[in-house]
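[job 0412] stage=fold_complex status=start
inputs:
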Amino acid sequence: MRTTTLTDERCHPVDFDDTPDEAAYRARVRAALAEHADELVHTDVDADAGEEAADPREQEQALRRTQRVLAEAGLVGVAWAAEHGGQGGSLAQQAIVGQELARARVPSLINHIGIGMCGPTVIAHGTPAQHEKYLARLLRADDVWCQLFSEPASGSDLAALRTTAVRDGEDWVVNGQKVWTTLAHVSDYGILLTRTDPDRPKHAGLTMFVVDMHAPGVTVRPLRQMGGQSDFNEVFLDDVRIPDAERLGEPGEGWRVALTTLLNERVAVGGGGNDLGLSVESLARLAADRLPALPADRQVLARQALGRAAVAALANRYTGYRRLTAISQGGLPGPEASAGKLAGTAAAKLVADAGVRLLGDDAVFAVGPGDDGGADGAGRWQRNQAWLPGIAIAGGTDEVLRNIVGERVLGLPPEPREDKHRPFDASGSAR
Amino acid sequence: MNFDLDQDQLDAAAGAERFFTGQAGPAQARAALEGGPLAPGRQALADIGFLGITVPEDAGGGGGSVLDLAVVAEQAGAVLAGPSLVTAARAAVLLADQPELAAALADGSRSFCVVDGDHPALDAVGADTFLALVDGDLVIGDGGVATGQPMDATRGLGVVTLTGTRVLVPDAGERWARARDVAVVALAAEDLGTAGKAVEVGVAYAKERQAFGRAIGSYQAVKHALVDAWVGVEQLRSLVWWAAWAADAAPGELPLAAASAGAFAAETLERAAETCIQVHGGTGFTWEHDAHLYWRRAKVDRLLLGDAAEHQDAVAGLVLAGALS
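[job 0412] stage=fold_complex status=done
writing structure:
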């Protein structure tokens, strides 16, 4: 159960500071962000935690412009190869850009799904023509991408999906429904996992495509979440024609292609030890503001909740540093990244709950009387609280992640899966 | 940025694992509980150099860092070794400008115990030299040790009554605080090793034991409990390494890092040890099985040098004072 591996390069002492090269790179990034500050969207810190823009359409355009400016400054796709439109830089440099964007309060890139998941999948499994057509535009947010995997009847059991693609001349004709598709409502392209051979066992009959989200037969309907905002969509696919040239990988190889996406997803979500939801720093500010006003006996409990949440967040953060170190030394992101999302979710819930409890009686209101809901007010802690249950489910439920860690890291045997080796149409999954 | 052990530390961990294998383990911890000696024992730990890892080289020690000590302490924890490296790490800080005494710590010619008032002191049983903070001064002297029936005999716990003390370092409050933080880190490092071993033992059994026609580790109820315990161990490892690194490289971060590691260690080891018992079912709570030896260590260590609530409160105080801004 060792988590470390020996390589010849591992001869450096622990050091959280930049190397001289990294420091010089950071200075260049910081200067570029300052130079372009007027052209970038800036946000309140932690704007991702369930916040919603007043005018989503205007926000979308502003975020696309922001990513384009950053791409032109060489700050998007930092670790992607130059032949794919990237900068050919290191993962350490990519992490530095992420830190500097956060410091400058630039929100998450609009095309984060494309950069984190779709792009790496196209790079790994696409043709040179697909690389040429998509990757540079993806980095500039000329095209925004989404990932069309989950379906109403197949979430954790993704390989049981029912959306079909049937060959028709030079095209494939797709019918079915996807759900929980982040960004579909603003996307230009998606990677789409379909069933092309229902007579084979469920993992063996899948094929991946790039789908044009503006093609006839694609209908996107936003889903409203429990917190009121809409991050996700339903996507209906009715006789959508996809040219065979837009296939990603061979027919029947879709599961292997999807694993590339999912692995990158778990690194992107929590793999680096970044806080999910409102950060522990936000909690610290709220606590400094609110805790001294609580009655003395409540302060004791609030301090314990604050301490517990901070410890969990720090444990997750420093575990992320270990994972980033391993990746920057050439290690591939492994199943350990699933542990990062598990721990990150647990820490985020502790931070969120400590924050809500600090609100005292205000916590019974989503936004209370005399509270504008902004800054560190009640509204954002309530939105954060309502956003977190989804984080324990999206991108791999806690239960699926525990299975992955248990089986792939600890080597525990899987549960029997009766449908795994039967033809999909004959298995229970198809009904 | 680089947050991983270096090659020397990996070699040291591997060397420590080899040394401890056969010298100590659950069988020796069980024997200690039934009145036997500590294993490997003070002299063996001194001879291999582990009591002097952080003692300066000119005082006969290894001149190493707290992180160097932590990687060895993890291996000590995995075999429930005694006496602790916690006391060695703490005494080395307290004796920083006392080369003769530090040399006696490193070579095992004196048996040190560090005393926190009337709290039960670690490694008190058999100690001949006691260190304490009295009226802000670091004092040294003899002591009488009152012991109860031990929960975990490898910890050598006893309540100490100091006798014949003299002031070693006046006005030593800051040094005392740093030594205590370093001790919390060393304790967390030993707990990391114990917790990792408890999970390993539980996982091995879950692969082997059959129920309802298949290995119990295939059931999600069992698998997920082990995964949660393992994730805790890996998260604890990060806090231990951070805190141990901070002790030398970023002393300003040490109070936050040490309290974080201490709080997380207490709860992580407890969960790992309890999960180990639960996974073993009926055999898990017998005297014959080793599981209770890890559990005993967990139930004792979670109360040493401050419990989780005390550490969490310290973290909260530091955060409220701006430690994260």
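[job 0412] summary: The beta strands of chain B are 112-115, 129-134, 137-146, 159-169, 210-211, 214-215.
[job 0412] exit 0
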